[in-house]
């Protein structure tokens, strides 16, 4: 039986196989703060030794327990902080059982040990509420500094992208630098009081992984990284950006309700809002991204549950004044969700600006390597829990291998985005000055209708530039075909530059007149600048423009 093997793996005899996992202890980040962010007081931190001093050493724990790999010791400390371990307590119990004075009844002694250990853990954890909240721990692979103490020594987004969700909280086999991919469809429960723990789980009095659709340790790391960047209490990551927006919409807009969205947006999002939400009796007001009066009128006329918009939008990179619309919506009881895919969590902090939720197609800049599809939504725990509840029913789970690619991709998010911001801005200026370009859409240009708003709420303008070349459909095809560096493909935000002609790539099923209703002209080009060298990209675009 699987559960029985659990206690045996903890006996001193079988500790030897773990020796290859031995590792150096983590550096102690509890003192000498780096940066000026608040941190957990070290007096509130629970250490393995404090555990031993409490419930365990008094039970005559022999030195054998100190032969446990340092990872294990570290796990105890983390588990204590999290107040959510089953194996942590079980391991201590097993060790004290096998190493302590032989009791008459091993089971009774173990049970008493478990109580003592649990009491020690509970007592300290109660004092450490901030660290406990939101943690998930199945007591197997330890993932994530989910107490967000990770971020206390990371003072900038660049450091957060690299370390958030991974440092401190993780006692990983072999002390690997990288987060392991936990390929499991479900999770088993450990021996001690197994049904008791399941009951606690069912009653939400402890958190634990239970089934793959409800969560995965690798996926949690990706979620925590995004939460740290967005300044969000919680993040839910899913199989795609569309999955994230649909689950969000279905959760937050009640049947028969009303929502507001904007004219310019990703076509599939619009299709869902316009074609599928009405099947649930949901009506929609669609406004121009700058039309705050239109938003106010819609709020006054209807009981609006949600204002959902991209900012910047796809493909015209229109920007919504997030602070202003959030205040307005909140005064009327409506929620605001911003699809910040084009902005990235680095260039724009939608939650800090007042939005309730921020959503991304993580397929784009967040993943950044054109090798994975994912979507995420971040916000307050309460709202994310509501969305998570429906997500757990619908599925749309992100595979842990995909979550790993997101984590790896995010390590360089700040570097990529810096480069892409810079290249896109410089290329937008080059294009705007070029005689064979009719119009450029980029929020970093003073000619952009929401340039002032973008300057206020963004720290960079993103890596995508849309523009109209001076010509018709065929001229534009000629230009696109003449480009040598970018792939002709329908995505953006990755290392590789990509170019697409929306009239053909995304709107070809519509007539030219219908496309025009959405502003999609035949000569429109959407160019996602990758991380290639600026001069190479510039030379390539200029030579392609020479061909038309
Ligand atoms: C702004 C925006 N949001 C959401 C999506 C959907 O994301 P995904 O392709 O990951 O489903 C896209 C796709 O291009 C997008 O551009």
From TrEMBL:
Instruction: Write down the Pfam families for this protein, in alphabetical order.
Output: Cys_Met_Meta_PP
Q: Which GO terms describe its biological process?
A: methionine biosynthetic process; transsulfuration
Q: Which UniProt keywords apply?
A: Pyridoxal phosphate
**What InterPro entries does the record tag this protein with?**
CGS1/2, Cys/Met-Metab_PyrdxlP-dep_enz, Cys_met_metab_PP, PyrdxlP-dep_Trfase, PyrdxlP-dep_Trfase_major, PyrdxlP-dep_Trfase_small
- The question of whether Transmembrane is a record keyword is answered with no
GO CC annotation: chloroplast
| Gene Ontology molecular function: any one | cystathionine gamma-synthase activity
Q: Does the keyword section mention Protein biosynthesis? A: no
Cofactor(s) required, per the database record: pyridoxal 5'-phosphate
Which family, according to UniProt? Belongs to the trans-sulfuration enzymes family.
| Listed name of the protein | Cystathionine gamma-synthase 1, chloroplastic
Organism of derivation:
Gossypium hirsutum (Upland cotton)
């Amino acid at each position: 039986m699987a559960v029985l093997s659990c206690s045996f793996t903890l006996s001193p005899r079988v500790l030897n196989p773990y020796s290859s996992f031995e590792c150096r202890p983590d550096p102690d980040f509890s003192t000498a703060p780096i940066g000026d962010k608040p941190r957990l007081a070290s007096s509130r931190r629970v250490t393995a030794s404090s555990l031993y001093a409490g419930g365990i050493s008094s039970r005559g724990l022999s030195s054998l327990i100190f032969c446990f790999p340092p990872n294990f010791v570290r796990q105890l400390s983390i588990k204590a902080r999290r107040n959510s371990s089953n194996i942590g307590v079980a391991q201590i119990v097993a060790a004290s059982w096998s190493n302590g004075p032989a009791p008459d009844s091993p089971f009774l002694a173990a049970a008493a040990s478990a109580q003592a250990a649990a009491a020690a853990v509970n007592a300290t954890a109660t004092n450490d509420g901030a660290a406990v909240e939101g943690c998930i721990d199945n007591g197997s692979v330890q993932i994530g500094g989910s107490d967000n103490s990770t971020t206390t020594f990371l003072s900038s987004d660049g450091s957060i992208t690299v370390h958030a969700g991974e440092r401190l909280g993780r006692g990983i086999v072999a002390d690997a630098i990288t987060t392991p991919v936990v390929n499991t469809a479900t999770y088993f429960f450990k021996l001690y009081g197994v049904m008791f723990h399941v009951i606690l789980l069912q009653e939400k009095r402890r958190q634990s992984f239970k089934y793959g659709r409800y969560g995965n340790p690798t996926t949690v790391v990706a979620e925590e990284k995004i939460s740290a960047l967005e300044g969000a209490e919680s993040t839910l990551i899913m199989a795609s950006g569309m999955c994230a927006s649909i689950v969000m919409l279905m959760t937050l807009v009640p049947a028969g309700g009303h929502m507001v969205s904007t004219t310019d947006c990703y076509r599939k999002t619009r299709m869902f809002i316009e074609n599928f939400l009405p099947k649930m009796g949901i009506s929609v007001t669609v406004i121009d991204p700058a039309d705050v009066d239109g938003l106010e009128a819609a709020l006054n006329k209807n009981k609006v549950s949600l204002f959902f918009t991209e900012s910047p939008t796809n493909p015209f990179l229109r920007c919504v004044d997030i602070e202003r619309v959030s205040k307005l919506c909140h005064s009327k009881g409506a929620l605001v969700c911003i699809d910040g895919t084009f902005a990235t969590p680095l260039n724009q902090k939608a939650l800090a600006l007042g939005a309730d939720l921020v959503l991304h197609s993580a397929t784009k800049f967040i993943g950044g390597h054109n090798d994975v599809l994912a979507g995420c939504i971040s916000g307050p725990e309460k709202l994310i829990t509501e969305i998570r509840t429906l997500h757990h029913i619908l599925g749309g789970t992100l595979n842990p291998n995909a979550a790993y690619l997101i984590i790896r991709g995010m390590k360089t998010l700040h570097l990529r985005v810096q480069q892409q911001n810079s290249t896109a801005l410089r290329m937008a200026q080059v294009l705007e000055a070029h005689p064979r370009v009719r119009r450029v859409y980029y929020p970093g240009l003073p000619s952009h209708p929401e340039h002032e708003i973008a300057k206020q709420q963004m720290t960079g303008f993103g890596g995508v530039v849309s523009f109209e070349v001076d010509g018709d459909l065929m001229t534009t095809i000629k230009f696109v075909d003449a480009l040598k560096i970018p792939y002709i493909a329908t995505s953006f935000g990755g290392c590789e530059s990509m170019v697409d002609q929306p009239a053909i790539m995304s709107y070809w099923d519509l007539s030219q007149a219908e496309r025009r209703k959405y502003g999609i002209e035949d000569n429109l080009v959407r160019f996602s600048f990758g991380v290639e060298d600026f001069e190479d990209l510039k030379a390539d675009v200029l030579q392609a423009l020479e061909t038309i």
